[in-house]
Amino acid sequence: MKTKLSILLVGLMASASLISAQQRTSLELNKPYYCSNGLTVTVMKCVLQNGKEFCEFKVEQNGKLAFQAAQSGEQLAAGVKSCSTTPPKEGAKAGAPGATAPVQAVAKTVQPVNGKPFSPSYLNEMPSVDFVKSEIQGKDATDTLARQVAVFNELPTVITSFQLADRKRYDATPDEQKVTGLYQLAGYELEQGYKKTHTAAEAQAFTQLHGRYELDSALNREMHVKLFSSAFLLELGGADKARNQWYQAHIEQEKRESEQAKAQAAGTQGGSPFIRNDAGTLAVRRCVELGGNELECVGRGFWSGLMDMAGLPADTTLSGMGSGPSRSGVVMNGQYNGSSGLWINFGKESVTVTGCGKLVPESLSYTLTKKPNQLLINVKNEPSAFVFSMESDKKLVGPGPIDIKGQTIVGYNNVWMQEYRNGVPQAGGTCAGNCGYWVHDPIYAPKTERCAIGAFAQATPEAPDKSALINSLTSAITTVMHTGPTGLRMTGRYTNPGGLVLEFADDAVTVDCGAAHVKQAYTVENGATEIRVTAKNGSAPFTVAVQANGALSGSGNADIAGRVVTGVSGNAVTYAARNARCAIGTLTSK
How far is 333 from 250, CA to CA, in rounded Å? Predict the structure, then answer.
């Protein structure tokens, strides 16, 4: 375990000091950032701690809560730079592959809407969307489209180079956000236009093709030569050098701060950050004992500390506060793809239908019904419900064409978000003329589409995101967002009178028996007459069956070999073994 974990744990003990004076941040609060792979990041609150800004945020994937944690405002802002605050458009149509406007009609650089030059000034040399399409060509229509999507995905990194080269600021200016958004939207519309007119296999091959182009140094050189002037490239080279120097200095500063915090912890806590037993520290300790990573454990500790300060039980979850999953039992999980471009994504409470005409992704509640040699998934839909049947190959088969009532986007309301300082609206030179930003709220209208709810197969994993900016956020998220396998899963907390506790998540089950606890993978099998759940549990796996009343029933004992934290030695956390045995019997949900 790294020293950094010990330092983060020490910082968590002072979680009460996070409730301090508010500081305005470049991050938009309580507005989702829409990222790739169906990820959204929402920043709820930012505060100061010892002169440094920290923000509480939550991450969702395809509308399903992944986790909630805290991170420095600087790191969080960098992570969501390539995300958009505007929801992706449904049914966006790209132009014909490779089609370009007449040369005389193409503006070489991006054009400000209000006629005023962009700020910073380098933005005025960034290429226009039409100019990119006219200059970046391939060997055929598909190759041209893939190269253009790759360039639109890479152009924001040029803006990032200039932004990070400026040590005085860590966030993008409104104009930098606008130009970045232009490129992101152009790439998104081209890719969606291709997917709308091609098969799922062709769409996947296209995604892989433009992903390879994003890593192609030859295309990168072509982008620079064709789209930028020599003078701009010299300026960009200077920005890259300044950015690298700043980054190295930033790393050295973090190392110094880490060593200072370590020395302070050793002096004030007797060398061990685990001496405290407040709610936050206990949550972190348990997470570490179960094998959690740094970001996950600190996030859980932060949440438990907040609940403790609010006078709520430390283990209160979002479901306990009126949101998130409330059911216990067998649920579905993950994405299934249909043959017609339609796909569905299951969470604990609902299934989201995407690609049904022009409807925005529609979430519908569902229930599971187990019958002999059959498992049915009943979906609540208007004007009529429908049912999936799970086949032996784990595919889902629906009823075929069916009407789905939902909503479509018919326009946007533009709302100006005014900047305030100490309750006073800012204007003019106090904020360099950028005293707020526009928010585009979609306008919805009801609509019914008829879509083919046929056969659906489990989706194959998506190719890694090639964007340097979003990749850093995605990597951090995947370390704590344990999505679990696609198919049948369990949810809820089950206990028996003998002290055995099973708490299910999408990826694993946490087993408590006396003072021992472990986190283990599990499987859910759709048997002929019953659903069986097996906890891997190292060399001593055990199985329980789901009863008609929702209880879990098994025989024999569960032998649990766990560990507990005893302290810190040097750079490593130290542990002691804790073993226990509990009778399985019947477990009921809490």
Answer: 41
Cα–Cα distances in Å, from 310 out to 69, 134, 303, 319? Answer: 17, 58, 11, 16
CA distance 439 to 434: 14
Token pair, residue 575, equals 């542990």
Same domain, 512 and 575: yes
Which range of residues forms the domain containing residue 443? 329-458
On whether residue 270 sits in a domain, the answer given is: yes
Up-side HSE of residue 295: CA atoms within 13 Å toward CB?
Answer: 22
User: Do residues 431 and 360 both lie within one domain?
Assistant: yes
Q: Parallel, antiparallel, or unpaired for β 32-34 and 531-535?
A: unpaired
* Residue 105 CB partners (closer than 8 Å, separation 6+): 130
How far apart are the C-alpha atoms of 282 and 81, rounded to whole Å? 34
Instruction: Please report where in the chains the tokens 């433009």 appear, as a residue.
Output: 210
The token pair at 445 is 């209208």
- Judged by phi (left if over 0) then psi (alpha if -120 to 50, else beta), residue 297 lies in alpha
40 within domain boundaries: no
* Type and span of the H or E element at 205: helix 200-214
Tokens of 419: 């900047």
Assess whether 199 and 263 both reside in one domain: yes
Quick one: which of 59, 74, 63, 76 has its CA closest to 479? 59
Token duo for residue 406: 């939902």
In a domain, 428, yes or no: yes
Handedness of CA 171, 176, 182, 187 (dihedral sign): negative
Which residues neighbour 529 within 8 Å (Cβ) at sequence distance 6 or greater?
Answer: 372, 373
Q: How many domains does the chain have?
A: 3
**Tens of pLDDT, residues 118-163:** 888 889 889 999 999 999 999 998 999 999 999 999 998 888 878 7
User: What are the tens digits of pLDDT across the range 71-130?
Assistant: 778 777 877 877 888 877 654 333 333 333 333 446 888 887 667 888 888 898 899 999
- Helical H segments across 217-293, by residue range: 217-227, 230-268, 279-289
Structure tokens at 61: 């994937």
